[in-house]
Amino acid sequence: MEIFNYSFDKIEPQRGDLLISEPFLADPNFVRTVILLCEHNEDGSFGFVLNKPAIVTLGHLLDKVPNRTDTVFVGGPVQQNTLQFVHRKPDIIDGGTEIIKDLYWGGNFDQIITMLDNNLIAESDIKFFVGYSGWSAGQLNNEIELNSWIISRNVNAEQIFDADVESLWKEVLKKMGGKYKIVSNFPVDPRLN
């Protein structure tokens, strides 16, 4: 009988990767999360949790667009008093930083408010986050060595904006195939299996 190898591929993370939490990660901020890695360099790393909706909508957070019901996501435990965004509309949003092809972080916020107020940008083209996930220099690499994170490099903008949030963790792992497909079926609590 073969025992399942609970070791994940150790690759150097890079901007645009997805970080998938290992199935039994105990940190409540990251249980079954998928994080879009927006930056990774010698100074540290940061990204946004893609599958953790907040309990408030965009209209609750921004007085200038009270009727917007866009979902806001908890991007992570760091600086939850900030609002950030990723989008796929560089043709109408100035100043964003390209993460991967057709996916940008940030941009002209006043321009965003005007577009939101006039319904010129769809919720399917922009995601908002309160807070972010951050790591100091070397910290993320250490966590990867400890099998806390699985890295997916097959990322595209459609996956970020069009995927079902509820099943994102499982679907990303299934798409990776092999042992990752097996991991996608692990129960949340193995004692209940």
Element layout with pairings:
Elements: E1 18-21, E2 34-41, E3 44-49, E4 53-57, H1 58-61, E5 71-74, E6 78-87, E7 97-100, E8 103-105, H2 109-117, E9 126-136, H3 139-145, E10 149-152, H4 157-162, H5 168-176, H6 178-183
Parallel strand pairs: 5-9
Antiparallel strand pairs: 1-2, 1-10, 2-3, 3-9, 4-5, 6-8, 6-9, 7-8
Notable traits:
VC0467-like, 193 residues, ten-stranded mixed beta sheet, globular, 6 helices, single chain
Description of the structure:
This protein has 193 residues and is of the alpha+beta class. It has a single domain, classed as VC0467-like (3-Layer(aba) Sandwich), CATH 3.40.1740.10. The protein is built from six helices and ten strands. Strands 1, 2, 3, 4, 5, 6, 7, 8, 9 and 10 form a ten-stranded mixed beta sheet that branches.
